[in-house]
Amino acid sequence: MDMWYSWEFIVIVLAGFSMSRSFCQSEKAPYYTFVHEATSAPHVLYYDYIIIGGGTSGCPLAATLSQGASVLVLERGGSPYGNPKIMNIANFANSLSDTSPNSASQQFISEDGVYNARARVLGGGSALNAGFYTHASADYVKQAGWIPEFVEKSYAWVESKVAFEPPMLEWQSAVRDGLVEVGVLPYNGFTYDHIYGTKVGGSIFDKYGHRHTAADLLEYAEPRNISVYLHATVHKILFTETGKPWPRPRAYGVVFEDSLGLKHWAYLRKSSMNEIILSAGALGSPQLLMLSGIGPANHLQAHSISVVVDQPMVGQGMADNPMNLLFIPSPIPVEVSLIQVVGITKFNSYVETASGLSFAYSWAHKFIREYELHLNETGQPSAVTAEAMSRATETLNSLVAETLQGGVILEKVIGPVSSGELKLRTTNPDDNPSVRFNYFKEPEDLHRCVQGMRTIIEVVNSRAFSKFRYKDMPVQALIDLMVNLPVNLRPRHFSTAMSLEQFCTDTVMTIWHYHGGCQVGKVVDSDYKVLGVDKLRVIDGSTFIDSPGTNPQATVMMLGRYMGKRILYERFIQGRK
Questions:
Q1: 541 marked as binding residue
Q2: For the chain, which has fewer Cβ within 10 Å, the N-terminal or C-terminal residue?
Q3: In degrees rounded to 5, what are phi and psi of residue 170?
Q4: Whole-angstrom Cα distance, residue 482 to residue 486?
């Protein structure tokens, strides 16, 4: 197998799509008088609420709480505004490929051998993702114990700022019609609702290709009551010692570091209602709980961390919805599109598509370097030589010159049932933790993937999709292509190309919908309060048992608003007593 040829495909499927036509320049950033670099923060600060993480949940949560209390937001990344790599759809891949120290994307490789990335930017994952916007199902809302009426109002609050109906051009329409043709019924048109059948969902990209992130929701904030500090890395949450006057630990402050390495202390003002809220995401929240002394005692002690609460469930239940796909070269030009259409099947696999992909030189070099680094770290000889990199450059240039065109059709497994765990590698909060998702450990997930891949094959062979197919390229050739590309670091097996079960296992990728680590009922209660301590909550995707809907971002933003309103209501009731 040609290593340099293989990495070309990684460019597309692993970390994003490089757009082949131009869009508008990034719109003018909103003038937030309350957003500052952490280097300008006082040495000591006092607030009613301290929110760790200005991401997809943290921004709507902070904006809501600021309507009735003082709020401090500590975000370890920078601002998305004024950064064309983030704000323009044409640069979608570039934002994920940026490996500079202050980039919005922090790459990691899971213990499963799958490439992945986490956000470090105001707005969180909504500043990096493919933009699909859709609600959780009614059953999901019921199981979560949320009040449906308030959920709908919270979704609407989010949508007035960040959600749009996408344009439907030829490729997306062909896949939509193909899904209907092969029986993913009924066709439900454009809707945010999660219902069986084929539909067009929303997007956080507007008609000009401009991204709208969760950071836009800070426009709702009361400027006098909120401070947002960027490049503010929280090192630990501070707890009181047990005993009088408190029978168990209570959170009372945090220590954070600015970009110059100077430490600052933020404390809660004196009130029984004031709290620290973790919204650092599915990796960041369990990681910071452990760094602060809440987690499995043996694991914390191995890292010389003083144990505040022995909580073995912190870091457990880590799950990532597995994605598998086919790349389909097209004999005719295709439009640039990210995720717009989804087939929601009754066997619980979701089929989606994106098109207008072009290979990016910078991506190939990034993954060649990353792959070489991984091999060296594992003590294996590097398979990537300077000569191979030179040949990769030549190959990529020739492909770009030939303007290879096409798209991908992918499937994502609901849930999933399979899960793993997160552990600390170091005590540095800037370092990625170790995480294993255990893709397809449970047979139910694998069965759904196989059914999803069969549906993709049927769509590719459908009459509706026929004009985007090379007549002399059978589906088996598309499968063989995927098998022979190192889309991950997992081993290949002899039967990979012949068995869809083995294909799913060997070519699995992330769709960046990982969740868990601080799950409701295990680490937090139904009010998202951390078990075993006081004045600390976790409100983000780390609390999810399953991923909501076909894309979680709408629900994560909704949750920030929903819980912000609930907390303010509790504060109001307590204040009247």
A1: yes
A2: C
A3: -70, -50
A4: 8
